[in-house]
Design goal:
Elements (H helix, E strand, L loop, with lengths): L8 E2 L5 H11 L8 H6 L1 H4 L1 E6 L2 E7 L5 E4 L8 H15 L5 E5 L1 H6 L6 E5 L5 E5 H6 L6 H13 L3 E4 L5 H15 L5 H15 L7 E7 L2 E12 L2 E9 L6 H14 L4 E3 L7 H8 L5 E3 L2 E5 L2
Parallel strand pairs: 4-5, 11-12
Antiparallel strand pairs: 1-2, 2-3, 3-4, 5-14, 6-14, 7-12, 7-13, 8-9, 9-10, 10-11
Helix pairs in contact: 8-9
């Protein structure tokens, strides 16, 4: 049964067709809005969902019952539903401040001139969007270093690429587990959440509209990537893992996955950097075509 606001319930796999159709009609540009993404992160963020008329509402219950919401998804104008959601968060959930996180520019434009609302850009959440052809061909002087990494890998590391299949499931899980042991995921809440997300997307791969690819070497799976269509013009890469002991492998799985899975899609969204300096440097080094802005929207006193 579809929950109607203010009744919420947890995301379930059986919700995927209903929710994904709402997202397909919206044609989102920000990486949050695929059912797969919400489903695999549902435990980390304690997502709950509801329908407010024609609008999909997503609630996030943080540690210590600190509630916030993501933007309503549905047709314009969303002024009324946005204000109603913020006021409900303050009144019923004690949210202080009552806020919506990761809102896109489209919603911000709809709220233009609305009093009592504070809107601030959140740079740490901006998505990096690249031209697919750039990530595949790595052409021109600016990609010289990337080409060198890949060419050296090709000369020294025999490998094969295969589309992800159920037979790769266990090996990918083991690679993700080794990565997490190395990075001490159990000591970092965000990395623990990512660990759970990787396990979920691999476990439910056959039930989700996801493509994947793996790099195989003599000792088995050494890298894998998983993603899906975000909108008609853009794919998004949700997960990318590689053996850290093999230099150039991340560059290789990035290039191969884009070429083999997404060469017919004009753009690739590689999600946000979360303010991590190393990740930001790595994403900028591929020269994004654009950054997709996201915003925090708060109800003022």
């Amino acid at each position: 049964m579809i929950p109607e606001f203010p009744r919420f319930r947890s995301l379930e796999l059986d919700d995927r067709h209903f929710i994904q159709e709402i997202f397909r009609m919206y044609q989102p540009e920000t990486s949050e809005w695929t059912f797969t993404n919400l489903f695999i992160w549902r435990s980390h963020y304690d997502f709950q969902w509801s329908m407010y008329g024609d609008w999909f509402i997503l609630l996030c219950i943080g540690k210590g019952q600190r509630y916030h919401a993501f933007q309503p998804i549905g047709p314009p104008s969303r002024k009324e539903v946005t204000v109603a959601l913020l006021e409900w968060l303050r009144r019923e959930k004690g949210a202080d401040p009552a806020r919506i996180e990761r809102a896109d520019q489209r919603l911000v434009s709809e709220l233009e001139g609305l009093p009592g609302i504070l809107i601030e850009a959140d740079r740490d959440q901006f998505d990096y969007v690249y031209r697919s052809i750039d990530l595949i061909e790595l052409a021109g002087r600016k990609y010289h270093g990337k080409r060198n990494h890949i060419n050296k890998f090709l000369r020294t590391q025999p490998f094969t690429y295969e589309p992800f299949d159920e037979k790769h499931h266990q090996a990918c899980l083991e690679l993700a587990d080794r990565w997490c042991v190395l990075h001490r995921c159990e000591e970092d809440l965000n990395l623990t959440g990512e660990w759970d997300a990787v396990r979920d997307i691999l476990t439910h791969f056959q039930d989700l509209p996801v493509k994947g690819g793996v790099i195989l070497m003599k000792n088995g799976v050494k890298a894998f990537a998983l993603g899906e269509l975000l909108n008609d013009q853009t794919a998004t890469v949700h997960i990318e893992k590689a053996d850290p002991d093999l230099p150039g492998l991340y560059a290789m799985i990035n290039q191969q996955f884009c070429e083999r899975a997404w060469k017919d899609v004009p753009f690739i969204n590689r999600e946000q950097d979360l303010g991590e300096s190393g990740l930001r440097k790595a994403k900028l080094s591929y020269y994004p075509n654009r950054l997709v802005e996201k915003f925090s929207i708060q109800l003022m006193e």
